[in-house]
Amino acid sequence: MATPPKNKLFFGSFVHSKTLAELEYLHSTAIAVDATGKIVAVEPGHATAAAAAEALLPKLGWAAGDVDTVATKSDSHFFFPGFIDTHLHASQYPNVGIFGNSTLLDWLNTYTFPLEASLADPAKARKVYTRVIRKTLAHGTTTAAYYATVDVSSTNLLADLCLAAGQRALVGRVCMDQLSPAYYRDESPAAALASTLASIAHIESIDPSASLVRPVLTPRFAPSCSAPLLKGLGALAADRPDLPIQTHISENKNEIALVKELFPPSSTGAPDDSYSSVYDAFGLLTERTILAHGVHLSEVEAELIAKRGAKVSHCPCSNSAITSGAARVRWLIEKGVTCGLGTDMSGGYSPSVLEAARHAALVSRHVAMGGDDKAKLTVEEVLYLATRGGADVVGLGGRVGAFEVGMEWDAQLVGLGTVDAEGGAVEEEDGNVDVFGWETWEERIAKWVYNGDDRNTRKVWVKGRLVHERKG
Amino acid sequence: MATPPKNKLFFGSFVHSKTLAELEYLHSTAIAVDATGKIVAVEPGHATAAAAAEALLPKLGWAAGDVDTVATKSDSHFFFPGFIDTHLHASQYPNVGIFGNSTLLDWLNTYTFPLEASLADPAKARKVYTRVIRKTLAHGTTTAAYYATVDVSSTNLLADLCLAAGQRALVGRVCMDQLSPAYYRDESPAAALASTLASIAHIESIDPSASLVRPVLTPRFAPSCSAPLLKGLGALAADRPDLPIQTHISENKNEIALVKELFPPSSTGAPDDSYSSVYDAFGLLTERTILAHGVHLSEVEAELIAKRGAKVSHCPCSNSAITSGAARVRWLIEKGVTCGLGTDMSGGYSPSVLEAARHAALVSRHVAMGGDDKAKLTVEEVLYLATRGGADVVGLGGRVGAFEVGMEWDAQLVGLGTVDAEGGAVEEEDGNVDVFGWETWEERIAKWVYNGDDRNTRKVWVKGRLVHERKG
């Protein structure tokens, strides 16, 4: 699947987020990407790819023979930034769709811990991680913030496989020294920190410049970490201000009650007993912190999170599936909290960030049904969360998530289906988005958001490298 | 696509609803279907298709050469009853996914009426209706309760096309003589009734025994019908006790207020000003009536609906998308109301009943978040609604929706994807359901409900006839 590094010229229609509210449509446009994967020119206004090449290549000093050209076929094809999945558990992938009527804490014990523990078997880990990387790439996920397991070697394997497949990834060894069954936890805070350092060292050894893969400090969530472990991770985070941090927050009401019980302010020195204050007291609420869920945050907590610059990964599929609640994304954004989307497999049932975007729009309507009509998220807004917002959440803002000079080419070629005059013969490969021909571009994008799937993601590039292509 | 009528023997795993709560798994089973499409034998306990044929054919008096055998390939394939879509607007299909942030009444004026009116153009109607039939068949919908448009000829065309494609369908000419723009409505109650009779006559002429296609009385919804029109339709319903009736009820709060304003009890003679009482006063609340939505029904209304034996088509995708509300399905069922699922395209964004089932489970969790934990619908329950429940809703209970002797063979062959030892090579055609091999059958079904799509629906039969087959 890998292609050797070469200059590339992309031509056709490009769609990306300009702001939260607005998509920009660049038609008859050429984007030049150099051999390192960087966007070096964005030029609208060319009638054909050949005309664009003729105008652009001399300016770039590129010989025509040294350039691969990728032009879109028709006006139902366009380039879109790759999706950023800001929260998912690679190790839980085999369980997608399996959760019964459980909620968070029983779901962890019944479905999740046994599966995660079983990935200490390297053959099983390889099978599962290979699959989840291929699957998410096929759905256009160019960057993923992964939780692996407690096991160091299987975590390291996940990083190896991401690098080999060319997927940009944050890879976190899961820290937990309490709450989970004895067969699946860190033996002590010291052991947890040592294992974390070992995994960090491995990941930094395979990609020293963090060109694609980087380690991420990963306290599973407060209830599964002892105070000494959280303290140690906070100290490590202070030592290593380049490392991102990921954890969960305020997903489920019983979980919140458990945090209050486990971490009273008297034990943490926090000013109150909120979940956010616990992380803050341990130095883990930082501008590098990715907080998954944030469903039941209070006003004060949202303000603290915004003040610290921590980010929220909204995981609507998971929140609905395991009955956690309906996160108020508009409210978080208005509080100044940076938000992105997570599939949260396998609390979430789908590997697709597009499904997360669609369901974010739907869940926002359920929030609106409570009386706050402006809670509704538009198609444009959920796509922003899936790309630019997500890039900001995982610390890659300005580097990926849009098509601007200086950013890296993490992108997907999207193709929608077209309906012929008889309404009949079509390519099955086209999937479920039917363009009849009279739709505006805005309507085509809405159709993609509501009925698109991996069949519409024809090709995927990360850092200029082709990492997925549909056979069809 | 049509195959000549022939006796058929299906062999392998069959899964269908026994009750609301329970799926039945029939493995190593043979089902014999005669040339008229009727199930004549269901026999578990045969090791192979050949063994089943040897045991079964002599009992049936069938010569081996006269029988087509269809055996499932592996334990990730199974037969499942075809889906019943109890509510959709064929004429709105081109608008799926296009609704912006609108709600019902502005959505009708902005998106819906202009499109429906445009289908008076027969070429456009043919294109759209051909497409919607192919698309829904591809998603396993063997029976659809369609709304067409106000236009008689385009409604008749929809019935012609369903019959030709072999899809079981209720086809309704939309009655409306008020509320909609002047360019798109019946000219008078008398004109509406005459057009309705004309469409009924056509549909009965092409399928006199209603073997597949039947007409359905279709007052769009109370606000778009004058009292004389509703009265006329009630009289027609009384004259023709064989005809089903379909309409909308209690979808949106502004709509409910409009009904109260338009139909005060003083004008209808109803005992109260509820939406249900309006239909009841006009003789339209019967055991043949399919009521779409029922989101905001009161206790008294649910009891009246149960008493009259009218049915509810739950349309979760639509209810979320256009912010109508979250219908309380468990509550309706406990009130004694028979429920099924509708895609409600294009208020709903998807042609897939499986998506409606998935979203019914998710929406039920949002109802549960309000505090009523037992509101949650299980995988088994949403599949019941999609098949057996739907059959009861459209008046085909006991005839389709399950695999029992005497019922007709409306079925789909479902194939799930399997992951090889390396986690890699798979058929793209397999879609997004990944079976790793260790899953129970119940877990496989859950995976299908949460990640399945039309790629998993390999073949579809209606009344024994193969009406869809994936190329892949």
TrEMBL record, chains A, B:
Domain Amidohydrolase-related residue range list: 80-467
UniProt-listed GO biological process terms: guanine catabolic process
CC per GO annotation: cytosol
SUPFAM superfamilies: Composite domain of metallo-dependent hydrolases, Metallo-dependent hydrolases
Catalytic activity, reaction form: guanine + H2O + H(+) = xanthine + NH4(+)
Entry EC number(s): 3.5.4.3
Enzyme class label: hydrolase
Pathway entry: Purine metabolism; guanine degradation; xanthine from guanine: step 1/1
Keyword annotations from UniProtKB, A to Z: Hydrolase, Metal-binding, Zinc
Molecular function as annotated in GO: guanine deaminase activity; zinc ion binding
Cofactor requirement: Zn(2+)
Family: Belongs to the metallo-dependent hydrolases superfamily. ATZ/TRZ family.
Role noted for this protein: Catalyzes the hydrolytic deamination of guanine, producing xanthine and ammonia.
Protein name per the record: Probable guanine deaminase
Organism lineage: Eukaryota, Fungi, Dikarya, Ascomycota, Pezizomycotina
